[in-house]
Specification:
185 residues, alpha+beta, Alpha-Beta Plaits, 2 domains, 5 helices, 4 strands, rod-shaped
Length: 185
Amino acid sequence: MSERRSLLFGLMGEFSTPEDLLAAAKKAREAGYKHIEAYTPFPIEGLSDAVGFRGFRSNLVAVLTLIGGIGGGLTGFGLQYWVAAIAYPINIGGRPLNSWPAFIPVTFELTVLGAATFAVFSMLALNKLPQPYHPVFNVERFSHASTDKFFLCIEARDPKFDLVESSKFLQSMHAQHVNEVKDEE
């Protein structure tokens, strides 16, 4: 029979208003915490900057979308050229085998299909979705994150993290509740 171990994932502070959460996130970044995450029932303007989220992933999604679009367009054009000029060359009425104007509609459609497919799947992969389990789900009060409460989690992997000091820090930010987040193994 294997033993279940509980590892500390971090500390989570619960706030009642978006303004309190935003102020706490800004102060946490100013205090030197780098691995923090906020959970809210709706988007809060300025929160992504306050927790230190950089737009690297969104820029990467744009690049991958471009790659998917170019790949889809080249695939559509290449397949039509191969079929018409190499695999099954049939000269009907003296038309050229490489009739590229006729290839445009399919090329356009496969460009859009490739770009859209790459955009969706790169966004999902970079956001690590779907993620059916996360350690914050072990906090009983976290069920309010989708309705009416705002949470700030300081992760234990943060170099500045200290259980006692980080707990005092969250309490000084007027967190209603401070909970340990356990990562059950």
